[in-house]
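Q: I'm building a small set of examples for a reading group on sequence design. Run inverse folding on the following structure and report the sequence directly after it, with nothing in between.
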């Protein structure tokens, strides 16, 4: 289908600073790595194109104006153009951000959990997590599950280590919490 177009974002002086390919309202989308200008500084360079044709023109325009990051020109594009697909939903992705929203395997979740264990959280991470959880109400079902999981647990101790369990974890454990002793350095 010929629904694609190539667009440019213009500076105040009229020179382009970004070239892109899209369809629909992509040229107005805030999902860019560069600042989207006001509508009077967005120009549709060519429209009524196939996706392949739009990719070719995008690449040609980026090559013509050059990229700032490579020292070859004036554009802020980070690639030479012609990458990607227009519809990530066709690939099974829920949105244009790739894996966001895509379910993760049990193995992947386990690996992420193991990687995070033992790493201290920064103060900014703690504040962000606290703000996210603040005011959140738990369902009655969650409260009941958590309560039932802890009812009947008792403290068991062995070699200065304590843990909660309904039954004795193994041989050598005694009922009760271990006393925490601090050794003073002399």
């Amino acid at each position: 289908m010929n629904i694609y177009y190539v667009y440019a974002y213009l500076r105040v002086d009229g020179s382009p600073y970004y070239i892109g390919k899209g369809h629909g309202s992509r040229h107005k989308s805030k999902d860019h790595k560069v600042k989207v200008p006001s509508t009077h500084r967005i120009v549709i360079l060519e429209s009524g194109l196939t996706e392949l044709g739009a990719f070719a023109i995008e690449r040609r325009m980026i090559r013509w104006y050059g990229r700032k990051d490579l020292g070859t020109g004036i554009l802020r594009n980070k690639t030479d153009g012609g990458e990607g697909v227009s519809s990530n939903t066709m690939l099974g992705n829920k949105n244009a951000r790739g894996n966001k929203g895509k379910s993760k395997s049990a193995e992947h979740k386990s690996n992420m959990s193991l990687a995070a264990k033992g790493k201290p959280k920064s103060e900014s991470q703690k504040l962000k997590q606290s703000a996210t959880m603040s005011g959140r109400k738990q369902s009655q079902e969650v409260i009941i599950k958590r309560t039932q999981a802890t009812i009947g647990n008792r403290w068991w101790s062995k070699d200065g280590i304590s843990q909660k369990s309904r039954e004795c974890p193994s041989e050598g454990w005694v009922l009760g919490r271990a006393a925490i002793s601090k050794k003073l350095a002399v």
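The radius of gyration is 29 Å.
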